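Summary for the lay section of the report: proteins are chains of building blocks that fold into shapes. Here we show the chain for Pseudouridine synthase and then a coded description of the shape we predicted for it.
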Amino acid sequence: MERLQKVLAQAGVASRRRSEALICSGRVKVNGQRVTELGTKVNPRQDRIEVDDRPVVLERKRTFLFYKPEQVITSMHDPQGRKVVADYFRHIPERVFPVGRLDYDTEGLLIMTNDGELTHRLLHPRYKVNKVYIATVEGKPGPKALKQLEKGVKLKDGWTAPAKVRFLSHSSRDNTSRLELTIHEGRKRQVRRMLKAVGHQVIHLIRVRFGFLTLEGLSKGEFRELTDEEIQRLKKEIL
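The coded shape description reads as follows.
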């Protein structure tokens, strides 16, 4: 027996938190009975579960690495008709969702999956999954700025956790620098805001690593499915 919200998340209906909201709002039925109590346990192989009177089907769990290009929204749809990450997965029978987000102007590694439990744990601060970015910034950050980033930066939504920072290069031709930053938080536009807070505007940003996963072998707009070995390794690190 498993908690109803966990089953909904695993089925790709919604995130666990969103699944809890669906239950509380009375939109979920189990064996024809409306359920509004969180923590209700079900047998996903025997019980008939419905959301908005539509049966919930447990899909085969699939997880992909996607190289998100710039000017693509990390969403399943956009009211303004702009390109979204879901557009690249229309031919996949299962409906996969992004794990976290990358900004519209940021490119790089994005995990797409219909495994709700995996998504929950990858994003939970408790597990501190490292994400590595390469940022091109205006100017040349000095030792003081780099030290600030390593200690934590005060933003409007509070202090950031310490980051690992590596200075990569500086171009005197256009006075820009490249830095590698490793963080485990996932605040909105966090890397851009951190660098701006220490006096350096981001010109270009790419996420090159999520945990042990990298962009190796992928071009912009391409994706590949994780192997069983990669899935097991990923789960071993966070479960």
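Put simply, here is one thing we learned. The first helix runs from residue 4 to 10.
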